[in-house]
Amino acid sequence: MQILHFDIKSQNILRDENFKPKISNFGLAKLYPVEDSLVRLTRARGAFGYMAPEMLYKNIGGVSYKADVYSFGMLLMEMVSRIKNVHASAEHLSQIYFLTWIYDQFHDEKNIEIQDATEDERTICKKMMIVALWCIQLKPSDRPSMNKVVKMLEGDVECLQVPLMLLQPSVK
């Protein structure tokens, strides 16, 4: 069996006595067989700002574990930027849509300010941001698996490529 958590967010990540992260709050979670790639839902689950785009469709239908990958990407972005992804009092109009603002900061090579950070810490933040950009791709099939996310985070930042385009809006 696999589990879809549906509520990956900062409030649901706790640390044990050794500061190892532990996921909590399985109230929205759903178990499903490993051989099934999708789980059927009748309504959206999760917290606004962390929900994958496919969770917001009127007829949700099938959702995969990639919805949790998206939520994890949003969590990584919050950690690096130190900005809540639902930001009501944005200083700049572009900050209202968190994903666009983050991508613009990264794409324009404007470093998100990290005061008193060492070069190693800046490299780690860059790696986290690249991984986050992969996790929040619009199409679930473009998002990495969580196993791949772990490998990306443990690997060398020079081996990571930034996704060419974060979101591909369709005009119909």
From TrEMBL:
Gene Ontology terms: cellular component: membrane
Membrane topology: Single-pass type I membrane protein
Subcellular location: Membrane
One term of GO molecular function: protein serine/threonine kinase activity
Ranges where the Protein kinase domain occurs: 1-165
Main location: membrane
Keyword line: Glycoprotein, Kinase, Membrane, Serine/threonine-protein kinase, Signal, Transferase, Transmembrane, Transmembrane helix
Protein name: Protein kinase domain-containing protein
Organism this protein belongs to: Juglans regia (English walnut)
